Protein backbone atom coordinates (compact mmCIF):
# COMPACT_ATOMS: atom_id res chain seq x y z
CA UNK A 1 0.00 0.00 0.00
CA UNK A 2 2.87 2.36 0.80
CA UNK A 3 4.38 1.66 -2.63
CA UNK A 4 1.03 2.42 -4.32
CA UNK A 5 0.69 5.65 -2.33
CA UNK A 6 4.21 6.72 -3.30
CA UNK A 7 3.50 5.93 -6.95
CA UNK A 8 0.32 8.02 -6.93
CA UNK A 9 1.96 11.04 -5.30
CA UNK A 10 2.98 13.98 -7.45
CA UNK A 11 5.98 16.32 -7.28
CA UNK A 12 5.97 18.62 -4.25
CA UNK A 13 8.47 20.87 -2.51
CA UNK A 14 10.34 19.16 0.35
CA UNK A 15 10.49 22.46 2.27
CA UNK A 16 6.76 22.45 2.97
CA UNK A 17 5.16 21.22 6.14
CA UNK A 18 2.93 18.15 5.98
CA UNK A 19 -0.14 20.36 6.36
CA UNK A 20 0.91 22.72 3.59
CA UNK A 21 1.53 19.86 1.17
CA UNK A 22 -2.25 19.72 0.91
CA UNK A 23 -2.17 23.26 -0.49
CA UNK A 24 0.33 23.01 -3.32
CA UNK A 25 2.20 21.00 -5.90
CA UNK A 26 4.26 21.89 -8.97
CA UNK A 27 1.15 22.60 -11.09
CA UNK A 28 -0.35 24.94 -8.49
CA UNK A 29 2.75 27.04 -7.90
CA UNK A 30 3.45 30.14 -10.04
CA UNK A 31 4.23 29.14 -13.61
CA UNK A 32 7.97 29.06 -14.26
CA UNK A 33 9.50 31.50 -16.70
CA UNK A 34 10.26 28.87 -19.34
CA UNK A 35 6.61 27.78 -19.40
CA UNK A 36 5.20 31.26 -20.05
CA UNK A 37 5.00 30.66 -23.76
CA UNK A 38 1.59 32.13 -24.64
CA UNK A 39 2.00 35.24 -26.80
CA UNK A 40 -0.67 37.61 -28.15
CA UNK A 41 -1.05 35.38 -31.20
CA UNK A 42 -1.55 32.37 -28.93
CA UNK A 43 -4.61 34.05 -27.40
CA UNK A 44 -5.89 35.09 -30.84
CA UNK A 45 -5.58 31.49 -32.05
CA UNK A 46 -7.24 30.21 -28.90
CA UNK A 47 -10.32 32.43 -29.20
CA UNK A 48 -10.63 31.94 -32.96
CA UNK A 49 -10.58 28.20 -32.37
CA UNK A 50 -12.85 28.33 -29.32
CA UNK A 51 -15.51 30.44 -31.06
CA UNK A 52 -15.97 27.85 -33.80
CA UNK A 53 -17.98 24.99 -32.34
CA UNK A 54 -21.39 23.42 -32.84
CA UNK A 55 -22.99 25.25 -29.90
CA UNK A 56 -22.04 28.64 -31.33
CA UNK A 57 -23.36 27.66 -34.77
CA UNK A 58 -26.75 26.99 -33.16
CA UNK A 59 -26.76 30.07 -30.90
CA UNK A 60 -28.44 32.55 -33.27
CA UNK A 61 -30.91 30.02 -34.61
CA UNK A 62 -32.07 29.31 -31.06
CA UNK A 63 -32.81 33.02 -30.61
CA UNK A 64 -34.66 33.10 -33.95
CA UNK A 65 -36.84 30.21 -32.78
CA UNK A 66 -37.83 32.36 -29.78
CA UNK A 67 -39.10 35.12 -32.03
CA UNK A 68 -36.12 37.30 -32.96
CA UNK A 69 -35.07 38.07 -36.50
CA UNK A 70 -31.68 36.74 -37.56
CA UNK A 71 -30.10 40.21 -37.51
CA UNK A 72 -31.51 41.02 -34.05
CA UNK A 73 -30.01 37.78 -32.81
CA UNK A 74 -26.62 38.66 -34.29
CA UNK A 75 -26.67 42.07 -32.60
CA UNK A 76 -27.42 40.36 -29.27
CA UNK A 77 -24.57 37.89 -29.79
CA UNK A 78 -22.09 40.65 -30.59
CA UNK A 79 -23.09 42.77 -27.57
CA UNK A 80 -23.08 39.72 -25.30
CA UNK A 81 -19.59 38.63 -26.32
CA UNK A 82 -18.26 42.20 -26.27
CA UNK A 83 -19.30 42.32 -22.61
CA UNK A 84 -17.84 38.85 -22.14
CA UNK A 85 -14.50 40.08 -23.51
CA UNK A 86 -14.31 42.78 -20.82
CA UNK A 87 -14.89 40.22 -18.06
CA UNK A 88 -12.45 37.77 -19.65
CA UNK A 89 -9.71 40.43 -19.69
CA UNK A 90 -10.43 41.39 -16.08
CA UNK A 91 -10.32 37.74 -15.01
CA UNK A 92 -7.11 37.19 -17.01
CA UNK A 93 -5.28 40.07 -15.35
CA UNK A 94 -4.30 38.49 -12.00
CA UNK A 95 -3.40 35.20 -13.69
CA UNK A 96 -1.18 36.90 -16.27
CA UNK A 97 0.39 39.18 -13.63
CA UNK A 98 1.25 36.64 -10.94
CA UNK A 99 1.16 33.57 -13.24
CA UNK A 100 -1.34 31.73 -11.05
CA UNK A 101 -4.24 29.49 -12.04
CA UNK A 102 -7.87 29.94 -10.96
CA UNK A 103 -7.88 27.49 -8.01
CA UNK A 104 -4.99 29.41 -6.43
CA UNK A 105 -6.28 32.90 -7.23
CA UNK A 106 -9.70 32.15 -5.75
CA UNK A 107 -7.96 31.65 -2.38
CA UNK A 108 -7.42 35.41 -2.24
CA UNK A 109 -11.12 36.15 -1.91
CA UNK A 110 -12.47 32.90 -0.42
CA UNK A 111 -9.61 31.81 1.82
CA UNK A 112 -7.23 28.87 1.80
CA UNK A 113 -9.94 26.33 2.62
CA UNK A 114 -13.05 28.31 1.69
CA UNK A 115 -11.88 28.19 -1.93
CA UNK A 116 -12.92 24.54 -2.06
CA UNK A 117 -16.57 25.50 -2.64
CA UNK A 118 -16.08 27.58 -5.83
CA UNK A 119 -13.57 24.99 -7.03
CA UNK A 120 -16.12 22.19 -6.60
CA UNK A 121 -18.67 24.30 -8.48
CA UNK A 122 -16.28 24.55 -11.42
CA UNK A 123 -15.43 20.84 -11.29
CA UNK A 124 -19.08 19.78 -11.40
CA UNK A 125 -20.03 22.05 -14.29
CA UNK A 126 -16.87 21.10 -16.24
CA UNK A 127 -17.56 17.36 -15.97
CA UNK A 128 -21.23 17.79 -16.91
CA UNK A 129 -20.41 19.97 -19.89
CA UNK A 130 -17.62 17.62 -20.96
CA UNK A 131 -20.14 14.79 -21.18
CA UNK A 132 -22.62 16.88 -23.18
CA UNK A 133 -19.97 18.31 -25.53
CA UNK A 134 -18.55 14.83 -26.11
CA UNK A 135 -21.98 13.51 -27.04
CA UNK A 136 -22.39 16.43 -29.48
CA UNK A 137 -18.92 15.70 -30.87
CA UNK A 138 -20.03 12.13 -31.53
CA UNK A 139 -22.39 13.56 -34.16
CA UNK A 140 -19.33 14.73 -36.12
CA UNK A 141 -17.97 11.19 -36.05
CA UNK A 142 -21.36 9.87 -37.19
CA UNK A 143 -21.27 12.05 -40.31
CA UNK A 144 -17.64 11.12 -41.04
CA UNK A 145 -18.38 7.39 -40.81
CA UNK A 146 -21.45 7.73 -43.03
CA UNK A 147 -19.28 9.42 -45.64
CA UNK A 148 -17.09 6.32 -45.78
CA UNK A 149 -20.07 3.98 -46.01
CA UNK A 150 -23.60 5.48 -46.08
CA UNK A 151 -25.06 2.02 -45.46
CA UNK A 152 -23.43 1.52 -42.06
CA UNK A 153 -26.45 2.81 -40.19
CA UNK A 154 -28.71 0.22 -41.82
CA UNK A 155 -27.08 -2.62 -39.86
CA UNK A 156 -29.49 -4.20 -37.39
CA UNK A 157 -26.93 -4.09 -34.59
CA UNK A 158 -26.14 -0.40 -35.10
CA UNK A 159 -29.83 0.50 -35.27
CA UNK A 160 -30.63 -1.27 -32.00
CA UNK A 161 -32.08 1.06 -29.35
CA UNK A 162 -29.66 0.81 -26.42
CA UNK A 163 -31.11 3.52 -24.22
CA UNK A 164 -33.29 6.60 -24.28
CA UNK A 165 -32.19 8.74 -27.23
CA UNK A 166 -29.31 6.33 -28.00
CA UNK A 167 -28.84 3.76 -30.74
CA UNK A 168 -25.91 1.43 -31.28
CA UNK A 169 -24.36 3.64 -33.97
CA UNK A 170 -24.64 6.68 -31.69
CA UNK A 171 -22.77 4.79 -28.96
CA UNK A 172 -19.97 3.82 -31.36
CA UNK A 173 -19.56 7.45 -32.45
CA UNK A 174 -19.67 8.71 -28.86
CA UNK A 175 -16.94 6.27 -27.78
CA UNK A 176 -14.72 7.19 -30.75
CA UNK A 177 -14.94 10.92 -30.00
CA UNK A 178 -14.43 10.26 -26.28
CA UNK A 179 -11.29 8.24 -27.12
CA UNK A 180 -9.95 11.11 -29.22
CA UNK A 181 -10.28 13.41 -26.20
CA UNK A 182 -7.66 11.29 -24.41
CA UNK A 183 -4.96 12.66 -26.74
CA UNK A 184 -4.99 16.45 -26.02
CA UNK A 185 -5.59 15.74 -22.33
CA UNK A 186 -2.05 14.35 -22.08
CA UNK A 187 -0.26 17.58 -23.00
CA UNK A 188 0.55 20.37 -20.49
CA UNK A 189 -1.21 23.71 -20.83
CA UNK A 190 1.85 25.54 -22.20
CA UNK A 191 2.07 23.05 -25.10
CA UNK A 192 -1.64 22.62 -25.87
CA UNK A 193 -1.49 26.03 -27.57
CA UNK A 194 -0.19 24.22 -30.67
CA UNK A 195 -3.44 22.24 -30.88
CA UNK A 196 -5.42 25.48 -30.69
CA UNK A 197 -3.25 26.92 -33.49
CA UNK A 198 -4.05 23.86 -35.62
CA UNK A 199 -7.74 24.25 -34.84
CA UNK A 200 -7.60 27.97 -35.67
CA UNK A 201 -6.49 26.99 -39.20
CA UNK A 202 -8.65 23.93 -39.84
CA UNK A 203 -11.95 24.96 -38.22
CA UNK A 204 -12.44 28.26 -40.13
CA UNK A 205 -11.56 26.51 -43.40
CA UNK A 206 -14.22 23.85 -42.89
CA UNK A 207 -16.79 26.41 -41.78
CA UNK A 208 -16.20 28.64 -44.83
CA UNK A 209 -16.64 25.65 -47.16
CA UNK A 210 -19.84 24.66 -45.33
CA UNK A 211 -21.15 28.23 -45.58
CA UNK A 212 -20.34 28.62 -49.28
CA UNK A 213 -21.78 25.22 -50.15
CA UNK A 214 -25.02 25.94 -48.28
CA UNK A 215 -25.36 29.31 -49.99
CA UNK A 216 -24.76 27.73 -53.39
CA UNK A 217 -27.39 25.04 -52.82
CA UNK A 218 -29.96 27.59 -51.61
CA UNK A 219 -29.49 29.88 -54.63
CA UNK A 220 -29.27 27.16 -57.30
CA UNK A 221 -32.58 28.25 -58.85
CA UNK A 222 -34.42 31.60 -58.91
CA UNK A 223 -37.28 30.15 -56.86
CA UNK A 224 -34.90 28.94 -54.12
CA UNK A 225 -33.16 32.32 -54.12
CA UNK A 226 -36.52 34.04 -53.65
CA UNK A 227 -37.36 31.64 -50.82
CA UNK A 228 -34.04 32.40 -49.09
CA UNK A 229 -34.73 36.13 -49.36
CA UNK A 230 -38.16 35.55 -47.85
CA UNK A 231 -36.65 33.59 -44.94
CA UNK A 232 -34.07 36.30 -44.23
CA UNK A 233 -36.61 39.13 -44.39
CA UNK A 234 -39.17 37.47 -42.13
CA UNK A 235 -40.26 39.91 -39.39
CA UNK A 236 -40.03 39.22 -35.68
CA UNK A 237 -42.98 37.38 -34.15
CA UNK A 238 -42.65 39.42 -30.92
CA UNK A 239 -44.35 42.63 -29.86
CA UNK A 240 -42.28 45.77 -29.30
CA UNK A 241 -42.08 45.27 -25.52
CA UNK A 242 -41.33 41.58 -25.93
CA UNK A 243 -38.52 42.36 -28.36
CA UNK A 244 -36.76 44.50 -25.75
CA UNK A 245 -36.76 41.80 -23.11
CA UNK A 246 -35.89 39.09 -25.64
CA UNK A 247 -32.86 41.15 -26.69
CA UNK A 248 -31.75 41.38 -23.05
CA UNK A 249 -32.26 37.64 -22.57
CA UNK A 250 -30.32 36.86 -25.75
CA UNK A 251 -27.41 39.02 -24.56
CA UNK A 252 -27.35 37.26 -21.19
CA UNK A 253 -27.56 33.86 -22.92
CA UNK A 254 -24.44 34.74 -24.90
CA UNK A 255 -22.59 35.72 -21.72
CA UNK A 256 -23.84 32.60 -19.91
CA UNK A 257 -22.49 30.49 -22.76
CA UNK A 258 -18.98 31.72 -21.85
CA UNK A 259 -19.25 32.18 -18.08
CA UNK A 260 -17.11 29.11 -17.36
CA UNK A 261 -14.25 30.58 -19.40
CA UNK A 262 -14.68 33.92 -17.63
CA UNK A 263 -13.79 32.12 -14.41
CA UNK A 264 -11.05 29.79 -15.55
CA UNK A 265 -9.32 31.91 -18.21
CA UNK A 266 -6.53 32.50 -15.67
CA UNK A 267 -5.57 28.83 -16.15
CA UNK A 268 -4.43 29.88 -19.63
CA UNK A 269 -3.47 33.48 -18.81
CA UNK A 270 -1.00 32.18 -16.22
CA UNK A 271 1.09 30.98 -19.19
CA UNK A 272 1.15 34.46 -20.79
CA UNK A 273 4.61 35.77 -21.64
CA UNK A 274 3.50 39.28 -20.69
CA UNK A 275 0.31 40.55 -19.09
CA UNK A 276 -0.19 42.82 -22.11
CA UNK A 277 -0.77 39.68 -24.18
CA UNK A 278 -4.20 39.14 -22.62
CA UNK A 279 -5.72 42.57 -23.37
CA UNK A 280 -6.19 43.58 -27.02
CA UNK A 281 -6.08 40.05 -28.52
CA UNK A 282 -9.04 39.02 -26.37
CA UNK A 283 -10.85 42.38 -26.61
CA UNK A 284 -11.02 42.04 -30.40
CA UNK A 285 -11.11 38.29 -30.99
CA UNK A 286 -13.82 37.27 -28.51
CA UNK A 287 -16.72 39.37 -29.91
CA UNK A 288 -15.64 39.10 -33.55
CA UNK A 289 -14.99 35.35 -33.43
CA UNK A 290 -18.36 34.44 -31.92
CA UNK A 291 -20.21 37.00 -34.08
CA UNK A 292 -18.80 35.61 -37.34
CA UNK A 293 -19.40 31.99 -36.32
CA UNK A 294 -22.99 32.78 -35.29
CA UNK A 295 -23.52 34.59 -38.59
CA UNK A 296 -22.36 31.54 -40.53
CA UNK A 297 -24.59 29.31 -38.39
CA UNK A 298 -27.80 31.30 -38.91
CA UNK A 299 -27.20 31.68 -42.67
CA UNK A 300 -26.46 27.95 -43.06
CA UNK A 301 -29.72 27.11 -41.25
CA UNK A 302 -31.64 29.68 -43.33
CA UNK A 303 -30.22 28.26 -46.56
CA UNK A 304 -31.27 24.76 -45.53
CA UNK A 305 -34.77 26.03 -44.75
CA UNK A 306 -34.97 27.74 -48.15
CA UNK A 307 -33.83 24.56 -49.89
CA UNK A 308 -35.94 21.98 -48.04
CA UNK A 309 -38.62 23.93 -46.18
CA UNK A 310 -37.42 22.39 -42.90
CA UNK A 311 -36.33 24.47 -39.90
CA UNK A 312 -33.25 22.74 -38.51
CA UNK A 313 -30.89 24.05 -35.81
CA UNK A 314 -28.25 21.33 -35.74
CA UNK A 315 -25.52 21.89 -38.37
CA UNK A 316 -24.56 18.22 -38.23
CA UNK A 317 -28.08 17.15 -39.25
CA UNK A 318 -27.88 19.63 -42.12
CA UNK A 319 -24.45 18.35 -43.15
CA UNK A 320 -25.60 14.73 -42.91
CA UNK A 321 -28.32 15.49 -45.46
CA UNK A 322 -25.67 16.75 -47.90
CA UNK A 323 -24.31 13.19 -48.29
CA UNK A 324 -24.84 11.75 -51.76
CA UNK A 325 -24.16 7.97 -51.78
CA UNK A 326 -23.45 8.06 -55.53
CA UNK A 327 -20.80 10.79 -55.46
CA UNK A 328 -17.40 10.13 -53.91
CA UNK A 329 -16.45 13.80 -54.33
CA UNK A 330 -19.50 14.98 -52.38
CA UNK A 331 -18.88 12.41 -49.65
CA UNK A 332 -15.25 13.56 -49.32
CA UNK A 333 -16.32 17.21 -49.08
CA UNK A 334 -18.85 16.36 -46.35
CA UNK A 335 -16.23 14.23 -44.56
CA UNK A 336 -13.72 17.10 -44.60
CA UNK A 337 -16.23 19.59 -43.17
CA UNK A 338 -17.23 17.08 -40.48
CA UNK A 339 -13.54 16.50 -39.67
CA UNK A 340 -12.96 20.25 -39.27
CA UNK A 341 -15.98 20.57 -36.96
CA UNK A 342 -14.78 17.52 -35.01
CA UNK A 343 -11.43 19.25 -34.39
CA UNK A 344 -13.34 22.40 -33.42
CA UNK A 345 -15.47 20.49 -30.92
CA UNK A 346 -12.40 18.79 -29.42
CA UNK A 347 -10.64 22.12 -28.90
CA UNK A 348 -13.64 23.71 -27.21
CA UNK A 349 -14.13 20.68 -24.96
CA UNK A 350 -10.46 20.70 -24.01
CA UNK A 351 -10.27 24.41 -23.21
CA UNK A 352 -13.58 24.94 -21.44
CA UNK A 353 -13.83 21.65 -19.56
CA UNK A 354 -10.78 19.38 -19.43
CA UNK A 355 -8.17 22.05 -18.63
CA UNK A 356 -10.44 23.78 -16.13
CA UNK A 357 -11.35 20.55 -14.36
CA UNK A 358 -7.74 19.38 -14.32
CA UNK A 359 -6.52 22.57 -12.65
CA UNK A 360 -9.40 22.59 -10.16
CA UNK A 361 -9.05 18.94 -9.13
CA UNK A 362 -5.34 19.55 -8.60
CA UNK A 363 -6.22 22.04 -5.87
CA UNK A 364 -8.60 19.55 -4.22
CA UNK A 365 -5.94 16.87 -3.72
CA UNK A 366 -2.53 18.33 -4.64
CA UNK A 367 -0.53 15.51 -3.06
CA UNK A 368 -1.99 13.01 -5.53
CA UNK A 369 -3.46 14.95 -8.48
CA UNK A 370 -1.75 17.18 -11.02
CA UNK A 371 -3.26 18.90 -14.07
CA UNK A 372 -2.87 15.85 -16.29
CA UNK A 373 -4.40 13.42 -13.79
CA UNK A 374 -7.22 15.87 -13.11
CA UNK A 375 -7.94 16.14 -16.82
CA UNK A 376 -8.16 12.37 -17.18
CA UNK A 377 -10.46 12.16 -14.15
CA UNK A 378 -12.77 14.61 -15.95
CA UNK A 379 -12.66 12.51 -19.12
CA UNK A 380 -13.48 9.23 -17.36
CA UNK A 381 -16.17 10.66 -15.09
CA UNK A 382 -17.76 12.30 -18.12
CA UNK A 383 -18.10 8.87 -19.69
CA UNK A 384 -20.19 7.72 -16.73
CA UNK A 385 -22.79 10.50 -16.96
CA UNK A 386 -24.81 9.03 -19.86
CA UNK A 387 -25.09 12.42 -21.63
CA UNK A 388 -27.66 11.09 -24.11
CA UNK A 389 -30.09 11.24 -21.19
CA UNK A 390 -28.95 14.69 -20.16
CA UNK A 391 -29.96 16.07 -23.56
CA UNK A 392 -33.23 14.16 -23.87
CA UNK A 393 -36.58 15.77 -24.54
CA UNK A 394 -38.14 19.09 -23.62
CA UNK A 395 -36.64 18.96 -20.12
CA UNK A 396 -33.18 19.08 -21.65
CA UNK A 397 -30.54 19.13 -18.98
CA UNK A 398 -28.72 21.87 -20.84
CA UNK A 399 -31.36 24.26 -19.42
CA UNK A 400 -30.11 23.41 -15.93
CA UNK A 401 -26.50 23.74 -17.06
CA UNK A 402 -27.19 27.22 -18.46
CA UNK A 403 -28.77 28.12 -15.12
CA UNK A 404 -25.42 27.45 -13.47
CA UNK A 405 -24.58 31.04 -14.43
CA UNK A 406 -26.53 31.93 -11.28
CA UNK A 407 -23.81 30.35 -9.14
CA UNK A 408 -20.74 31.14 -11.22
CA UNK A 409 -21.54 34.85 -11.64
CA UNK A 410 -21.63 35.30 -7.86
CA UNK A 411 -18.22 33.62 -7.57
CA UNK A 412 -16.82 35.92 -10.27
CA UNK A 413 -18.22 38.93 -8.40
CA UNK A 414 -16.36 38.14 -5.18
CA UNK A 415 -13.13 37.24 -6.97
CA UNK A 416 -12.87 40.33 -9.18
CA UNK A 417 -14.09 42.84 -6.59
CA UNK A 418 -11.49 41.54 -4.12
CA UNK A 419 -8.66 41.94 -6.62
CA UNK A 420 -9.61 45.24 -8.29
CA UNK A 421 -11.38 47.13 -5.48
CA UNK A 422 -10.59 45.75 -2.01
CA UNK A 423 -6.87 45.01 -2.53
CA UNK A 424 -6.32 47.02 -5.74
CA UNK A 425 -3.79 44.58 -7.15
CA UNK A 426 -1.91 43.75 -3.94
CA UNK A 427 -1.18 40.11 -3.21
CA UNK A 428 0.95 37.89 -1.01
CA UNK A 429 1.71 34.96 -3.29
CA UNK A 430 3.59 32.92 -0.69
CA UNK A 431 0.63 33.13 1.71
CA UNK A 432 -1.57 31.48 -0.92
CA UNK A 433 0.26 28.27 -0.06
CA UNK A 434 0.37 28.65 3.72
CA UNK A 435 -2.21 27.65 6.30
CA UNK A 436 -1.46 30.90 8.18
CA UNK A 437 -1.14 34.32 6.58
CA UNK A 438 -3.16 36.89 4.66
CA UNK A 439 -5.67 34.35 3.45
CA UNK A 440 -6.23 32.27 6.58
CA UNK A 441 -9.28 34.38 7.58
CA UNK A 442 -11.59 32.38 9.92
CA UNK A 443 -10.28 28.82 9.91
CA UNK A 444 -9.29 29.35 6.28
CA UNK A 445 -12.70 30.65 5.17
CA UNK A 446 -13.44 34.27 4.22
CA UNK A 447 -16.93 34.80 5.61
CA UNK A 448 -17.21 38.05 3.63
CA UNK A 449 -17.09 36.09 0.38
CA UNK A 450 -19.56 33.51 1.67
CA UNK A 451 -22.09 36.20 2.63
CA UNK A 452 -21.67 38.05 -0.68
CA UNK A 453 -21.99 34.82 -2.65
CA UNK A 454 -25.21 33.82 -0.87
CA UNK A 455 -26.70 37.25 -1.60
CA UNK A 456 -25.68 37.06 -5.26
CA UNK A 457 -27.23 33.61 -5.65
CA UNK A 458 -30.37 34.37 -3.63
CA UNK A 459 -31.53 37.24 -5.82
CA UNK A 460 -31.64 34.92 -8.86
CA UNK A 461 -32.78 31.72 -7.17
CA UNK A 462 -36.59 32.25 -7.44
CA UNK A 463 -36.35 32.97 -11.16
CA UNK A 464 -34.00 30.02 -11.64
CA UNK A 465 -36.51 27.67 -10.01
CA UNK A 466 -39.30 29.10 -12.16
CA UNK A 467 -37.24 28.42 -15.30
CA UNK A 468 -37.38 24.68 -14.68
CA UNK A 469 -40.29 22.71 -16.22
CA UNK A 470 -43.41 22.57 -14.05
CA UNK A 471 -42.47 25.57 -11.89
CA UNK A 472 -43.19 28.40 -14.33
CA UNK A 473 -46.07 29.93 -12.34
CA UNK A 474 -44.72 29.81 -8.78
CA UNK A 475 -43.04 33.24 -8.84
CA UNK A 476 -44.01 36.67 -10.15
CA UNK A 477 -42.86 38.47 -13.28
CA UNK A 478 -40.33 40.57 -11.34
CA UNK A 479 -38.41 37.49 -10.16
CA UNK A 480 -38.42 36.10 -13.69
CA UNK A 481 -37.06 39.34 -15.13
CA UNK A 482 -34.35 39.50 -12.49
CA UNK A 483 -33.35 35.98 -13.52
CA UNK A 484 -33.31 37.11 -17.16
CA UNK A 485 -30.47 39.40 -16.04
CA UNK A 486 -28.90 36.60 -13.97
CA UNK A 487 -25.26 37.23 -14.84
CA UNK A 488 -25.46 40.96 -14.16
CA UNK A 489 -27.58 40.71 -11.02
CA UNK A 490 -25.50 37.88 -9.56
CA UNK A 491 -22.22 39.61 -10.32
CA UNK A 492 -23.26 43.08 -9.17
CA UNK A 493 -25.00 42.01 -5.95
CA UNK A 494 -22.13 39.78 -4.84
CA UNK A 495 -19.59 42.50 -5.73
CA UNK A 496 -21.40 45.29 -3.88
CA UNK A 497 -22.00 43.16 -0.78
CA UNK A 498 -18.39 41.95 -0.73
CA UNK A 499 -17.00 45.48 -1.07
CA UNK A 500 -19.35 46.83 1.61
CA UNK A 501 -18.48 44.15 4.16
CA UNK A 502 -14.77 44.50 3.37
CA UNK A 503 -15.05 48.25 3.94
CA UNK A 504 -16.56 47.70 7.39
CA UNK A 505 -14.29 44.77 8.29
CA UNK A 506 -11.16 45.13 6.12
CA UNK A 507 -9.27 41.88 5.54
CA UNK A 508 -5.50 41.70 5.77
CA UNK A 509 -4.06 43.23 2.61
CA UNK A 510 -6.97 45.61 1.97
CA UNK A 511 -6.16 49.20 1.02
CA UNK A 512 -8.18 52.47 0.99
CA UNK A 513 -10.40 53.02 -2.04
CA UNK A 514 -8.32 56.04 -3.08
CA UNK A 515 -5.08 54.03 -3.06
CA UNK A 516 -3.43 53.63 -6.48
CA UNK A 517 -3.90 50.36 -8.34
CA UNK A 518 -0.55 48.55 -8.01
CA UNK A 519 0.02 44.87 -8.76
CA UNK A 520 2.51 44.04 -6.02
CA UNK A 521 3.49 40.75 -4.42
CA UNK A 522 4.33 41.49 -0.79
CA UNK A 523 5.92 38.10 -0.24
CA UNK A 524 8.90 39.11 -2.38
CA UNK A 525 8.48 36.20 -4.75
CA UNK A 526 11.05 36.18 -7.54
CA UNK A 527 10.87 34.45 -10.90
CA UNK A 528 14.25 32.79 -10.36
CA UNK A 529 13.17 30.52 -7.53
CA UNK A 530 12.52 26.86 -8.25
CA UNK A 531 9.64 26.88 -5.80
CA UNK A 532 7.59 29.43 -3.94
CA UNK A 533 8.93 27.83 -0.79
CA UNK A 534 12.52 28.64 -1.71
CA UNK A 535 11.70 32.08 -0.30
CA UNK A 536 11.97 30.64 3.18
CA UNK A 537 15.30 28.98 2.43
CA UNK A 538 17.09 31.52 0.22
CA UNK A 539 15.58 34.76 1.51
CA UNK A 540 13.45 37.36 -0.20
CA UNK A 541 14.17 39.33 -3.31
CA UNK A 542 12.41 40.64 -6.35
CA UNK A 543 12.63 41.54 -9.98
CA UNK A 544 10.35 42.98 -12.59
CA UNK A 545 9.44 40.73 -15.47
CA UNK A 546 6.85 41.28 -18.16
CA UNK A 547 5.66 44.49 -16.56
CA UNK A 548 4.94 42.89 -13.18
CA UNK A 549 5.53 45.09 -10.14
CA UNK A 550 7.41 43.09 -7.51
CA UNK A 551 8.60 44.37 -4.15
CA UNK A 552 12.33 44.16 -3.57
CA UNK A 553 12.32 44.10 0.20
CA UNK A 554 10.65 41.95 2.77
CA UNK A 555 7.33 43.46 3.84
CA UNK A 556 5.43 42.32 6.88
CA UNK A 557 1.85 41.38 6.10
CA UNK A 558 0.51 43.71 8.77
CA UNK A 559 2.10 46.77 7.14
CA UNK A 560 -0.58 46.86 4.49
CA UNK A 561 -3.49 46.61 6.86
CA UNK A 562 -6.25 48.97 5.83
CA UNK A 563 -6.37 52.36 7.54
CA UNK A 564 -10.02 52.83 6.68
CA UNK A 565 -11.36 51.48 9.94
CA UNK A 566 -10.08 50.84 13.42
CA UNK A 567 -12.37 47.84 13.50
CA UNK A 568 -10.03 45.86 11.25
CA UNK A 569 -9.59 42.41 12.69
CA UNK A 570 -6.98 39.75 12.10
CA UNK A 571 -9.51 37.05 11.34
CA UNK A 572 -13.11 37.71 10.51
Protein model, in words:
- The chain has 26 helices and four strands.
- Helix 6 (116-148) packs across helix 8 (168-180).
- It folds into two domains: 31-110 and 137-402, Hydantoin permease (Orthogonal Bundle), CATH 1.10.4160; 404-572, no CATH class.
- The radius of gyration is 25 Å and the shape is globular.
- The protein has a two-stranded antiparallel ribbon. The protein has a two-stranded parallel sheet with strand order 3-4.
- Strand 1 and strand 2 form a beta hairpin.
- The chain is mainly α and 572 residues long.
- The model is unreliable at 526-530 and 536-572 (pLDDT under 50).
- The longest helix is centred in the middle third of the chain and has 37 residues, at 328-364.
- The chain has helices spanning 2-8, 40-51, 54-65, 70-98, 102-110, 116-148, 156-159, 168-180, 182-185, 189-218, 222-232, 240-256, 259-264, 266-269, 280-308, 315-320, 328-364, 371-383, 387-390, 397-402, 405-422, 447-458, 461-466, 477-484, 486-504, 535-538; strands at residues 161-163, 166-167, 520-521, 549-550.
- It comes from Wallemia ichthyophaga (strain EXF-994 / CBS 113033).
- One of its GO terms (molecular function) is nucleobase transmembrane transporter activity.
- Pfam families: Transp_cyt_pur.
- It is found in: Membrane.
- Keywords: Membrane, Transmembrane, Transmembrane helix.
